[in-house]
Amino acid sequence: MKRKNLIQKFWNYFLLFVTFIVVVFVLGIIIYVIIKGWPALSWEFITQKPAAGMREGGIFPAILGTLYLIIGTIIFSLPIGIFAAIYLNEYASKNRLTRIIRLSIVNVSGVPSVVFGLFGLGFFVIFLNFGKSILAGSLTLALLILPVIITATEEALKTVPNSYRQASLALGATKWQTITKITLPQALPGIITGSVIGIGRAAGETAPIIFTVAAFSQPNLPNSIFSQVMALPYHLFVLATQLPNAPEDMQWGTALVLLIMVLFFATIGTVVRTRSRLRRVNL
């Protein structure tokens, strides 16, 4: 008995140590980026257009372009991903076909992002003739994160006890009413978590947008969904690798702004998830 307790304590402390290392590592990266990038942050840096071959001025077009891409990705990916997960979990029969579909979704989530970029170039940019545009980039990023959203939503739906569904149906509710009024609200925290992870990934991707939307230099602001835009991930890549003698503070400042944007969306997701859980507990 004592030996089992010792083994249990060992693994508890070991897992605590590993978790501590991961947290310290992540916080270290965030703090380092803040320290290096904070001197570059100013109102002019955030609101002005690039100048002097992008070695001076600001990054406002890249910020706006990234926001457009994130919003477009959310518009296309969330409804499709959530409805697909609802169908797989609530309506689809449990047979070989659905198992193949689930396996395919899991496998697609591991495909390198550059492959999605090449697909977006061939299908959206060339075949559908969207050109390098916000529309093509948003659709490509939506395809990239769809597997994450579908998988996370389906797993969240599975956590809702079947007794909730049965009680709702027994009271005369339709299946769709049960899903919208009972199942989805209960699964909302998990859905939000998966969505935030997917959106964060999309915001930081470089390879897909290189092929479908990102411009090396585009100081003019976009005027339609078919406009090409600058984006923070690609702009950071350009500053770090394509511009000789580019100011280092601009590179770190761009990285910090991108980090702030990702953390902003993650914070919103956390707040909504927490309020949803509290509301569910109070009910």
Describe the model.
With 283 residues, this protein is an all-alpha fold. The chain has a single domain, classed as MetI-like (MetI-like fold). Helices cover 77% and strands 1% of the residues. The chain has 11 helices and 2 strands; from the N terminus they run ααββααααααααα. Strands 1-2 form a two-stranded antiparallel ribbon. Helix 3 packs parallel to helix 6 and helix 4 (96-108) packs across helix 6. The two termini are 42 Å apart. The model has no long low-confidence stretch (mean pLDDT 86).
Describe the structure in brief.
The protein is mostly helical and 283 residues long. The protein has helices at 2-37, 43-47, 60-91, 96-108, 113-127, 134-158, 162-170, 175-204, 207-212, 232-242, 248-282, and strands at 50-51, 56-57. The chain has eleven helices and two strands, in the order ααββααααααααα.
